[in-house]
Design a protein that fits this description.
Layout lengths: L4 H11 L5 H20 L4 E3 L3 E8 L2 E4 L6 E4 L2 E8 L1 H7 L5
Antiparallel strand pairs: 1-2, 2-5, 3-4
Helix pairs in contact: 1-2
Length: 97
């Protein structure tokens, strides 16, 4: 099951009942906006205990349409790379520290 923002806000409001839902929503919007803006600038985002987001540039190339075999120019574009932290890796694989 994928987590969507509404489910995340519900979990946050259950975990922190003393905060208003609109404050939690604003807080999450600010965090996500800052992550997006940082990645747009080409900088990396490190969330300790979770992982690192960084961007890399995929060079322009000539690819082909698999259905028709026709050659297609693919322009240069930025992609996002995520590397999980060792702590998260250990939690996902039920390893002890």
């Amino acid at each position: 099951m994928a987590i969507v923002k509404s489910n995340l806000l519900k979990q946050l409001s259950r975990s922190y009942p003393n905060f208003l839902k609109k404050d939690l929503e604003k807080f999450s919007e600010i965090i996500l906006k800052e992550i997006k803006e940082t990645l747009k600038r080409g900088e990396r985002v490190e969330l300790r205990g979770f992982g690192v987001f960084s961007t890399s540039i995929q060079k322009a190339r000539i690819s082909r349409n698999p259905k028709t075999g026709e050659k297609v120019n693919t322009p240069e574009k930025k992609t996002i790379h995520f590397k999980m932290s060792k702590d998260l890796f250990k939690k996902l694989n039920n390893e002890k520290k």
